[in-house]
Amino acid sequence: MYQEMILDYYRNPRHFGELDSPDVQHREANPLCGDIIEVQMKVKNGAVNQACFQGKGCAISQAAVSMLMEHVQGKPVSEVHAFSKEQMLDLLGIPVSYARLKCALLGFKVMKMCTCKHLGRELGEGFA
Amino acid sequence: MFLPESTIDSVPQYANVSASANDSAIVSSCKSSFPLLVSQPKLVYFDSAATTQKPQEVIDALQDFYETANANPHRGVYALSVSATNAYAAARETVAEFLGARNEEIVFVRNATEGINLVMHSWAQQHVKQGDTILLTEMEHHSNLVPWQVVAKEKGARLDFIPLTPEGLLDMNVARSLLMKKPVLLALTHVSNVLGSINPVKQLVQLAHTVGAKVLLDACQSVAHMPVNVQEFGVDFMVFSGHKIYGPTGSGVVYIKKELHAELVPFLFGGDMIQEVHWHDSSFAAMPYLLEAGTPPVAEAVGLARAIDFVRALGWDWIQTHEQELMITCLNGLRAMPQVKILGTTTPAMRSGLIAFNLGDMHAHDVASVLDDAGVCIRSGHHCCMPLHEKLGIAASCRVSFGVYNSREDIVAFLNALTKACEVFKLEQ
After folding, report:
1. From residue B416, how far is each of A111, B330, B428 by CA, in Å?
2. Which one of A46, A50, B338, B378 has the largest count of C-beta atoms within 10 Å of its C-beta?
3. A52-76: average pLDDT
4. Residues B231-252: pLDDT tens digits?
């Protein structure tokens, strides 16, 4: 699970920081581990102009959200919104045990909340 | 952060070498009483502070009750119901004797959390008034914090917290001055489930009683590891969870001092807790039945009593010596690893058999995942002590905690797995 790439993203997170006047932002915590992730986004012409995150937590949660931030730059918000859990796990590229799924998907859930807010949609089921 | 200042090597009182060979034989015979550990011989179970494994005799006691004595107690006049009633009463006697209490001072609940909620509803809601203070400590488990937050908000009372010293012990000087403010209740844990610190309960109870405060003791982390005698401590309320002392889940105990029984109101209402019921009014049963509404957890109570018998058969001398030896061996091993930051005191006499720590810059869940791959079960997270972790400036920690079945080999396996984790996480040796 702890390949070099994951540790690299954990120790040197990409797109980590804060935006000036973001168009949309959301923050979630995982009360089980105390992981916290906040995602901020600027949208231009229906696409993600800038996205970044702040937070603290385990290597899996932090690496996953950092990779996601990289992935969504420049993509249409509707496409980001349609991004699935399975695609997120593929992007992470490591086998994630059941106990760690919440860690792997915390940033994904926060991103989803951002696109929901922007598109005026409900989060839908499967996001306990 | 609590950094190891004092040396633990200078306190060898428990690390008795001659006891080790004998100890090893007892441990292996003890371990063979736990079917889960027998069927998974490579498993290193280091999460007894969360819940203990169950010895065969406790599992048998549950099965035996259902196979031979099961009926609803206190109800039927037939012989089988009497057997169930007797089994339940005998379980209460065992618990009472174990704690130095009277039978009517023992109330069976599901767990310590329910026990504290019971004290909250049955006593505190009637006795905490606006402007009163409830005194807690900075090392309380959420279960001994959140109910008091609710009472304080409802009643307009305030919460004070006995702070910690840099070593992770209660600051007794501040404790004295906070007690001088005459809190109505002091609710504290006997042993911290994060720091392992053993609190000076007797001393605090004496101080609290001189200012008229009642004392609730959370004995969850001590009851399986050291003698807990309510008379010796002089506490007014005491709670523990049966599953942390080798008993079944769903078995918990509240002790309430007899002198307070007249002040209690029922926690739950309904069957079994009544004396007479009319259409518009009812009168209630005496203690302990007053606080045990509905069909009680009879099999669980019977299982808990058997677990207490198991602990008594091993004896405190052996249990304490064994667990201290494990703790000292583990502390020494952890202190030899520069990447490890231990939480709490490193003075063995001041701590129980659990150790929380962090490894380099890694999150506790990452460490626990790698250890899990090696078959080592450790706890990771905030251990239901979020404010304490916040105070320590950390989001989470790893925790190992020992039971009677753990051996020195388990410690070696754990330390090896931790060394492997350093490699996986590319932490400097």
Report:
1. 39, 12, 16
2. B378
3. 95
4. 999 999 999 999 999 999 999 9
User: What are the φ/ψ torsions at residue A79 (nearest 5 degrees)?
Assistant: -70, -40
Q: How far is CA A108 from CA A72, A95, A116, B141, in A?
A: 11, 16, 12, 31
pLDDT at B15: 38
Would the pLDDT of A70 be above 80?
Answer: yes
Give per-residue pLDDT as tens, B412-427. Answer: 999 999 999 999 999 9
Q: Does B180 touch chain A (CB under 8 A)?
A: no
For residues A28 and A37, is the Cβ–Cβ distance under 8 A? yes
Fold type of domain B17-54+315-424 = Aspartate Aminotransferase, domain 1 (3.90.1150)
Is-catalytic flag, B220?
no
Cα distance from A34 to chain B (closest Cα, Å)? Answer: 6
Q: If you ran DSSP here, which 8-state letter would residue B124 be given?
A: I
Average pLDDT over residues B383-393: 92
Predicted confidence (pLDDT) at residue A75 exceeds the cutoff of 50: yes
Position B20 scores a pLDDT of 61
DSSP A3-59: -HHHHHHHHS-TTBS--SS-SEEEEEEETTTTEEEEEEEEEETTEEEEEEEEEE--H
Catalytic site residue from B384, B385, B398, B422: B384
Q: Using the beta-carbon criterion (under 8 Å), do A58 and B381 form an inter-chain contact?
A: no
Locate B300 and state its tokens.
């669980």
Residues of chain A with pLDDT > 70: what percent? 97
Angstrom distance (rounded) from CA B298 to CA B87: 8
Mean pLDDT over B115-139 rounds to 98
* Contact with chain B for residue A56, Cβ under 8 A: yes
Chain A residues whose CB is inside 8 A of the B395 CB are 33-36, 56-57
Query: Is the minimum CB–CB distance between B202 and chain A shorter than 8 Å?
Result: no
**What are the structure tokens assigned to B405, written together?**
């079945």
**A4 vs B contacts (CB less than 8 Å):** 426
Nearest chain B residue to A56 by CA distance is B395
Kindly list the structural domains of chain A, giving each domain's residue range(s) and its CATH number in brackets, ordered by start: 4-117 (3.90.1010.10)
Cβ within 8 Å, pair B363-A11: no
CB pair distance less than 8 Å for A100 and B363: no
> What's the average model confidence in pLDDT over A91-96?
93
Provide the mean pLDDT of chain A.
92
**Residue B426 distance to chain A (closest CA, Å):** 9
> What are the residue ranges spanned by the domains of chain B?
17-54+315-424, 59-312
Residues 6+ apart with CB under 8 A from A111: A39, A51, A65, A68, A72, A80, A83
Q: Which two tokens stand for residue B143?
A: 């279960």
d(CA A93, CA B322): 45
Average pLDDT over residues A29-57: 91
Looking at the structure, give the CATH architecture of the domain made up of residues B59-312.
3-Layer(aba) Sandwich (3.40)
* Residues of chain B above pLDDT 90, percent: 89
Nearest to A59 among B362, B386, B389 (CB): B362
Q: What pLDDT does B59 receive?
A: 98
**DSSP code of residue B376:** E
